Amino acid sequence: MTSDPTLDEALARLLPHWLPTQRWFAAKGRAIASVSVVAAVPLPVADGPRVDHVLVAVAFADGGPAQHYQLHVARDTAPAGEFDHVTIGPVGDRIAYDGLWDPRVTAWLLGAVRTGTEVGDLRFIPEPGAEIPEPGPGRVLGVEQSNTSVVWGDCSILKTFRLVQPGVNPDLELHRALRSVGSTQVAALQGAVEGTLHDEPVTLGMLQDYAANSADGWAMALASVRDLFAEADLHADEVGGDFAGEAARLGETIAIVHAQLRTALGEGSRDAAELVANWTARLDTAVAEIPDLAPYTEAIRAVYAEVAGSVATQRVHGDLHLGQTLRTPQGWLVLDFEGEPAAPLAERVRPDSALRDVAGMLRSFDYAAFHSFAGDPEPDQQRLWHAGEWAQRNRAAFCDGYALRAGRDPREDGALLRAFELNKAVYEVVYETRNRPSWVSIPLDSIARLVAVTRS
């Protein structure tokens, strides 16, 4: 509870209905048992609405662990119509809405980071030497799923973590580490917002340079695939939109980031048997839920069994795919070092093989190539052949680029790389079955290809 019982009671009543309608809410499909305010800190926004920074606990009817979410709850007597789509509901004699959409609130947030403001348990921390612009109104980007980002012109972007867990978020931790070694392969960190959750430190937001003149890696790959499909008589290397050069440069970038993370945070090793046990446990759970995996189970286990000995480990991205990359005029940038958002924090910060990231990107090339066939019971065979050609060409180009910078080709560790790919594909089968059933053929077909390579 907080010092404002009106706010506590209203949010407990309103949020069970409002939260599931938000794109960033991570528990869609789970029945909410209750929502309670864990902490609320009033923010001194001058000449604006009343604003509270709020952390809420969401309990579920299935009895699973509670989740914690971050909100900036603004309250005004007559909010502007532009806030209708983020209106939470009445709180006393005012209307509450998501304050991140209010330019008066975002101007205050930028100024707070710039000046190193502290309010209650909230700490707005500028990075030493960072150039943070003068406060001004920001605008919310509408493309994210799990977080909310606000941008100021072409200068800064504040990522606000919606689902929060006690501890330092790996996205902030790894960006600080990469900044310490002068990395230019990530957007420079300008500052952070930190607080307290159940008496433990918690990361609430990150302010970074904004790469305004950039292109999303996933969108670029899809455009390349479309170009190939439009030129039915040409091969992938003959089409003007050939992506292989960019895939190779992206491979170089990932290898550089891996080297920088080793320099900043060191490296170690893990017993392969531990990895195999984790992969096997995921496979057993997946097969019990999804019978379509059963025909491949023994072949997958055979790939896992080839992995033995000691595996070199380091801090890695943990959830790498084309959508986590941006192409700028200067080169590729890597984004979002949170790891798999649904995984516990202890798992997301644990060192792993760099091949986990390589495998994640290889899976992403398969998705880019084959996603347009999702749900099509009779796909065009010529287009299907071209999709396979595109995937193979770009997977190879990425590995070539990675090898150029890393000094070792990831394909030389074939069994370990295939095992990481298969483990990721098994995860994807579960995810797609639960969320996008028409897409499940993409990882299932990839599993069939990967085990066929092993058998041959």
Automatic annotation (TrEMBL):
Keyword list, A-Z: ATP-binding, Carbohydrate metabolism, Glycogen biosynthesis, Glycogen metabolism, Kinase, Nucleotide-binding, Transferase
Protein name: Maltokinase
Domain of life: Bacteria
Catalytic EC class: transferase
This protein's pathway: Glycan biosynthesis; glycogen biosynthesis
Oligomer and partners: Monomer.
Similarity annotation: Belongs to the aminoglycoside phosphotransferase family.
Keyword Membrane listed: no
EC code(s) of this entry: 2.7.1.175
Gene3D superfamilies noted in UniProt: 3.90.1200.10
Gene Ontology MF term list: ATP binding; kinase activity
Catalytic reaction equation(s): D-maltose + ATP = alpha-maltose 1-phosphate + ADP + H(+)
InterPro entries reported for this sequence: Kinase-like_dom_sf (IPR011009), Mak_N_cap (IPR040999)
Positions of the Maltokinase N-terminal cap domain: 18-102
BP-aspect Gene Ontology terms: glycogen biosynthetic process
